Amino acid sequence: MQYSRLTKAITQSKADCVVIPVIDEKKLTNHGQVIDKATNRAIHQALSQGYFKGERKTLLLLQTPGIQAQSILLCHFGDLKEIDDASYATTLQQVFKELTTLNVESAIVALDDLPINRDQNWQAQQIFQALAHSSYCFKQHKSNPKLATLKKCLFVDSISNSQLRHGKALLNAMHLAKDLGNSPGNICTPQYLATQASKLAGKYPNLKATIYSEAQMRKMGMNSLLSVASGSTVPAKLIVLEYRGTKQQKSSPIALVGKGVTFDSGGISLKPGAAMDEMKYDMMGAASVLATLQAVAELKLPIHLVVVIPATENMPSGQATKPGDIVQSMSGQTIEILNTDAEGRLILCDALTFVQKQYKPKCIIDVATLTGAILVSLGKLLTGAFTNNDSLISQLKAAAENSNDKIWQMPMLDIYQSALKSNFADMANIGDRYAGSITAACFLARFIENDTPWIHLDIAGTAWNSGDAKGATGRPVPLLLEFLKNYSN
Q1: Would you please indicate which residues are annotated as catalytic (active-site) residues?
Q2: pLDDT in the model for residue 333
Q3: Are 74 and 59 in contact (CB under 8 A)?
Q4: Of these four, 25, 94, 289, 458, which has the most CB atoms within 10 Å of its CB?
Q5: Same-domain check for residues 77 and 49
Q6: Which residues pair with 276 in a beta bridge?
Q7: pLDDT score of 104
Q8: Total number of domains in the chain
Q9: What are the phi and psi torsion angles at 109 (to 5°)?
Q10: Is 164 within a domain?
Q11: pLDDT tens across 293-320, in order?
């Protein structure tokens, strides 16, 4: 799709459709007033008939002379005092879905100047997130895919060149995360992820990829990670990407660590068969950090960033790890594996040790579809966040507000650590049936050294949708990119 800013007045620019917001049933923003005047107040006449009054209606299509666009799509965002982040984003998605239904190929988008309690930068970012969803089509394995018809988006001059660049990078990154997540486990293997990482490194000169084999991981003592891989015939990979957007050679990097279980059967602790196909999404942590890195490189952010992805399958076989087995992690700590389906923490703990020993990062954010328990706590709307550092979580909360990719800070008190007690090793990999997402975070916290600022994001509820809308969401790419953009500033 092409994205550009208008080079002519909005009334003189050609397109299949121009999209204008309405608030409080009939009030127009500045762009709407300009078009209304050019069409001899055709919009005012349509709205004065009370179309948006009473029963909730969102969209009205008008065919009017006086401007170069062939049609006008009016989008009612509701009463001004009732517009919140969620309703704004929902209306945007309805708008772009309607453009697809109307088979619109080119559209002028003038939706960024609503007088709401959010600035224009926030509104612009929400427009591109909505576009990322509406323009996405996973077509790789369909013989006759239904493609989005919208091919060209023109933005009014209130969208800056910087916002346009950021929006395009965000959209492309969300599409990459969705593509990786939606790919089936027989295609998106650890080697496939490694290949995508290498291709990305080949595209940007200040990006370097290093792929570690199982033999190399074994030599480094990553026995916890390898215990998860032991049941699969597909070799595990440790994927490391280093981006240097700054000339300071000795700078400590920011580290993103993404869980990359490309298919999770549960291992010997086999999952129920229902919805097991969705366990191809157990690598959405990996997909999101890889996609975020692409956006960072595309925007040339002046930061030093390291991305680490432990990638493996978790399968049952005669070679698979058994409940009760004990392994020694790279950190030297021993783990009694009571449940092989609590595998994400087993690969993350070695990845966390690796990135700290190798790079001594200034902070770490790990991203993982880690626990079903986070769904019980927060549902599908909020990502659970756990931290050892108040300053770092404050920055991430600000990024969550600015991106509308919401998080909720969860407790991680030392009193929960007792649940991980083992009679036979330094720790067990699970606690009892209660507070599962918290005890998982407490497990990971044991591998954070020297009080390194660290956040764990549990995205098991937000990384994909089920049912008729089944598919990867692209979260938390908007959150991570906003955090890194702010950090670079």
Answers
A1: 271, 345
A2: 98
A3: yes
A4: 458
A5: yes
A6: none
A7: 94
A8: 2
A9: -105, 115
A10: no
A11: 999 999 999 999 999 999 999 999 999 9
